[in-house]
Amino acid sequence: MAANAPHRGGPQPQPRLMTRGARAVPGLAAHPAARLLAGGLTITISTDTRTTSATTLTREFAELRASAGWTTVQEELVQAHAAGAAFAPWR
Which tens digit of pLDDT belongs to each residue from 20-41? Predict the structure, then answer.
């Protein structure tokens, strides 16, 4: 899957609930965020349009814990990816 991902060199935002809401995946368990991260991609988890979507980052991580077995290890990694993408030029 990682070989087919676009923009392999930069972070890949994964707004899980919005992707599901747009019917891009059949449900949260089918969302590729966990597989992409495990495959070595630099991904971030976001609320996408936080002012118009009915979710929070806390909820996104809770859904990942429930559906993909994430722990604070994965959460901290994607948060580090997000901080690096937001505050420093991507190499």
Answer: 556 667 777 778 888 889 999 9
CA angle 88-31-7, nearest 5°? 35
Of 9, 1, 16, 2, nearest to 70 by C-alpha is: 16
Measured distance CA(50)–CA(64) in Å, rounded: 18
Degrees (nearest 5) of the Cα angle 50, 54, 58? 70
| Burial (Cβ within 10 Å: 0-12, 13-18, ≥19) of residue 72 | exposed
Which residue segment(s) compose the domain that 54 sits in?
Answer: 32-91
pTM over 0.85: no
Residues 6+ apart with CB under 8 A from 13: 43, 44, 45, 46, 48
Tally the domains of the chain. 1
